[in-house]
Amino acid sequence: MTATATSELPRGSVIDELEFPNDPDNLYLQTVTTMLGAAELINLKHRSRIILAQPKNEIIVNFPVKMDDGHHKLFKGYRIQHNNCCGPYKGGFRYHQDVHLDDVKSLAFLMTMKCAVVRIPFGGGKGGVQLNPREVSHEELQRITRRYCCAIMDQIGPDVDIPAPDVGTTAEIMAWFADTYMMSSAHQHHDALRVVTGKPLEYGGSAGRLKATGQGVADTLAEMLPGVGIALHGMKVSLLGFGNVNGWAGQILTDMGATIVAVMDHTGAIRNDNGIDCKALYEHNMKTGGIGGFTGDADEIDEEAFYRTPVDVFIPGALEQMIKEQQAEWLDCKLMAEAANAPCDPSGERKLDEKGIEVIPAILANAGGVTVSYFEWVQNKNAVTWSAEQVDRELNRHMVVAAQRTMERRNELKCSLRTAAFATALDHIGDVYKVRGIFP
Ligand code: NAD
Which of the chain's termini has less CB crowding within 10 Å, N or C? Predict the structure, then answer.
């Protein structure tokens, strides 16, 4: 089961019942459709399907911020609380000029599924503010963060809804957010630090959080590669995006014996069939904000050449919906591991199906980040600090079990890995609704 264009969707009872708009490019509808396909296969109860098909709360806020030149600007922010049957809402917030309601709803939905795949006691949420963080000063960024926090602070909390970093937001931004929350009179206790994860190490952050998503991608691949007939040692990999997730995934996979042969980000693309030095590239990226101008051993290539580079595994780790039909047509890989959320649009996904390219879905492949966020929350709650080794060990255990569960479900249901991962998430959520019942 893959996401398909809405015009070809079975206008099943839930889609019709909830009167979804018939928009083929709507990411939220695609996400719901994928869930409903898996729900059908496992006979999930109708009540769980309708509850999951819409978020519990959609919070939209508009708030003014004084800019450096003295004028006031109004910003629009979102916080979507998709589902909390398994625990507090959990999910990052992003700063990006293209943040829109339906996209944030999709990402919140995927968080519910992701937390259930790795069986951590959280539900799903997501937030965002419409802004290009590169176009505001450091001081303005801090004021925007503090006002966004004030605007939503009555609806979140350490046991209610726990934000974290995402695209365009950093550990420093999480520290400003936590500080603002804790300065309000209702939350002036140190335990309130748990209101966000992904904080700096010196202010309640966890060892291993920065590399956690990349580490989780590597752990998942190591577990699943034998099942798809690829040897980790010597496998060739291309990376789309080289930020927090893929910058780390590239370094970790290189240490595990893989060869990173091509990398592309918003500043350019490079290729070296003998392997790109990902540590040097990461340092360059940290200094300059992109891979463009890298002076290490690699040739500059264009977008088409990047996608056409023959590899065993392609890892998209940039933004959503970047792999369209054309990019999928160019791709020359056996397996795609989704480090980014929803990296393929419906036409891209169909082309991958046609070409027989296996896809490890994001709700499994990139669940390492939220898993270590959970470890951070547990450490804060218990006022303890785990070593980096303990974090890595626990993360690996969660990722391996989730990967095994997904492969078992795939064999039982005879479906794609994406449907199998959704099915394992729905198995868990369905069980929780069964024992909790639905109030009243
Ligand atoms: P980031 O901002 O650190 O990096 C984003 C990367 O995408 C950068 O290398 C950027 O150059 C690249 N990019 C942006 N536009 C591009 C374009 N047009 N062409 C090519 N490359 C482009 O973000 P991140 O934290 O690495 O997150 C990447 C993805 O992973 C996002 O989809 C995010 O939601 C998802 N994700 C992140 C985490 C996490 O812990 N950071 C966890 C789960 C999922």
Answer: C
